[in-house]
Amino acid sequence: MELAIAASEGVRGTTSPNPPVGAVVLDRDGLVVGVGATSPPGGPHAEVVALAAAGERARGGTAVVTLEPCAHHGRTPPCVDALLAAGIAEVHIAVTDPNPVAAGGVAKLEAAGVRVRVGLLAQRVAGGPLRAWLHYARTGRPHVTWKYATTLDGRVAAADGTSRWISGEASRAEVHEFRRKVDAIMAGRGTVLADDPRLTARLDDGTDAPRQPLRVVVGMGDLPAGAHVLDDAAPTLHLRTRDPAVVLTELTSRGVVDVLLEGGPRLAGAFLAAGMIDRVLAYVAPQLLGAGPLALADAGVSTVTAAHQFTVEEATMVGSDVRISAVPMRG
Hints:
single chain; about 325 residues; alpha/beta; Cytidine Deaminase, domain 2; Dihydrofolate Reductase, subunit A; 2 domains; eight-stranded mixed β-sheet; 10 helices; about 25% helix; elongated
């Protein structure tokens, strides 16, 4: 399953609206004979790729898959049928498919006499490469991660507006790696006017990554003709609205599953007030400014008892910064 997770993570950002699944095939003796991951839409799914690599060595063997194999015929035939045709005797699955259209793979495998085990490293998969897609399948809207860098006193810029660089080099490199794996990077029009960001994913050497997510700018009014977000480095969508629900509906229609919200404070506040931030990713730098804009503007909270409650998933050092990953407390 570790190999399957790595394969899944390797294609994250290239498969939407399909899930980035990883699969491994073992022969009768337990040796790895095939590893696969989901291809871009229209291409073979992870199980089919792994089975093709395994060939006849798959017969009587075991398949290890991050997501329940699909049982329906979409752009490609059901993966369950491919597993059965290959003679797989046992299947280990991390998480079941919440999509009722595609689900049913476990039942079909068991009915054919295949031994099935569910739950292997389920939390790793559900909180890792399949996090955004599972949310998308359950809710029908993209998963939104609000990412920001702040000082110890919550400032995202100094009083004069300067913000480069609050976070350290290691944090910035990690963010670009994260950008390379999402479907869209979103910012408010105000941030574009104030900072003129590129909103692109870059490699370690500073050049643009081969694959770029969709740049999404939210807000009324035109954008400056020379704005970086209007260059040809990546596609850009300007949504002239302030309504988070309208934004996500439009992105859903475009097959966007995983969104990185990068700025600014008002846009983040609007999404938080609407209950549409699914994870907070905060990089906290060991600096104090004492003045300057804060990370978050009005989020619909007037008293401390109405605060938006989050659970910290992880807090870890990234260079000299602290990275905090937190998710909303539900119920």
